[in-house]
Each structure stands twice: as C-alpha cells, then as structure tokens.
Amino acid sequence: MYNCALLKFKDIVSNDGHLTSIEERIDVPFIIKRIYYITGVAQDAERGFHAHKTLHQVLICLNGSIKIRLKTPIKEEQIKLNDPSVGLYIGPLIWREMFDFTKGSVLLVAASDHYSEDDYIRDYNLYLDEAKDTFLSHSIHE
Ligand code: TYD
Fold first, then answer.
1. Entry pTM
2. Could you give the 3-state DSSP secondary structure of residue 116?
3. CATH number of the domain to which 112 belongs
4. Planar angle of CA 45, 51, 53, nearest 5 degrees
5. Does residue 84 form part of some domain?
6. Is residue 31, in this structure, part of any structural domain at all?
7. Tell me: the pLDDT tens digits for 48-77?
8. Which residues pair with 70 in a beta bridge?
9. Fewest beta carbons within 10 Å, which of 81, 83, 104, 112?
10. Taking CA 4 as the corner, what is the angle to CA 36 and CA 47, rounded to the nearest 5 degrees?
11. CA of 109 to the centre of ligand 1 (A)
12. Which of 46, 51, 29, 47 is nearest to 132 (CA)?
C-alpha cells in the first residue's frame, strides 16, 4: 500500500531468548525523535482514527497481537501485528485504526518527530479532502 511497508528486523535468537535492535536510517527509513507505547487497551477498544500530515512512524507489537486498518482515498487494507521483529511503517497521509488488542498486548511506536497536535488530521472527511489530491492527481493506484 502507498506509503506503508512491513519491515523485518533482525531477530537474534539464543537459548536465552530473542533480541531485536532498531537503528535509525538503517532499520527504519527516518531519524527517530520520539518513541511511545500503548498498553492496557481493552479488547473491544479501537484507537487511532487519524492520519498525519508529515509524520513517519513504525509500529511494533512487542507482546500479544494488534490489528491495524489502513485507509487511503482509494484503498483499504488490514494488517495483524504479532511479531516483535516486524514493524509496520506508516508514512504521511495514511488513515489508521487500531483494534483487536489482545489482553496484555504492547504496541511500541517510533516516530520521526516530536508530538504535535497540528500534524494530526482527526476528521475522516477532512482527511479524504486533504489526501485526494495526492492520490488522485498523482495517479497512485496501490
Ligand atoms: P493519539 O495519537 O490520538 O492516540 P491513538 O492514535 O493511539 O488513539 O493520542 C492520544 C492522546 O495522547 C492525545 O491526547 C495526544 C496524546 N499524546 C501525547 O501527548 N504525546 C504523544 O506522543 C502521543 C502519541 C499522544
């Protein structure tokens, strides 16, 4: 899907467990300025429901599983994250909704910038309006 990708990180396995490291501009395609994590989400709760104007993010499910619905004006896709060595890259102008958090699930997010509410598009109709030029006038089909 346009501006989205699944990234496979190194999984260093030993008898004593797994280790994954993530280096900016090597394992993720941006400089990491912020990390945050989401825990304790009820199984029937849904989060997200926004897009970003400029922010790049990678979502990693460290424990349990989480589903992500990705939307653009021309496509919709659903992805299940359940492997700590896999990251979902989401670039600008992608609408995301997170749901089906299993009990004890942990979602880690690495972001390319500090928190700024100005970078959010939280209204879906406004999102469609702002994104349609990018998707339709540039003939993006994916
Ligand atoms: P939000 O990004 O809407 O969460 P989600 O997409 O998971 O539903 O953020 C929820 C609240 O937390 C909102 O009031 C903004 C605040 N927040 C910060 O203060 N700093 C941050 O880095 C993030 C991601 C959110």
1. 0.96
2. coil
3. 2.60.120.10
4. 155
5. yes
6. yes
7. 999 999 999 999 999 999 999 999 999 999
8. 77, 96
9. 104
10. 45
11. 11
12. 51
What is the number of the ligand 1 atom nearest to the C-alpha of 107?
A: 7
pLDDT at 31 over 90: yes
CA of 117 to the centre of ligand 1 (A): 9
Task: Name the closest-CA residue to atom 20, ligand 1.
Answer: 115
How many folded domains does the chain comprise? 1
* pLDDT of 136: 81
Distance between Cα 36 and ligand 1 center (Å):
9
Q: Is residue 62 part of a domain?
A: yes
Indicate the top mutation candidate among 107, 115, 116 to test ligand 1's pocket, ranked by most ligand atoms within 8 A of CB: 115
Sign of CA dihedral 20, 22, 23, 29: positive
- Please check whether residue 142 lies inside any domain of the structure: no
Q: Inform me whether the pLDDT recorded for 37 exceeds 80.
A: yes
- Mean pLDDT score of the chain: 96
pLDDT in tens, 88-112: 999 999 999 999 999 999 999 999 9
Identify the domain containing residue 88 by its residue range: 4-137
For ligand 1, whether the C-beta of 46 sits within 6 Å is no
Is 50 among the residues known to form the active site? yes
The average pLDDT across 25-44 equals: 97
Task: Look up residue 122 and give its two tokens.
Answer: 């939280």
Q: For residue 75, how far is its CA from the centre of ligand 1 (angstroms)?
A: 25
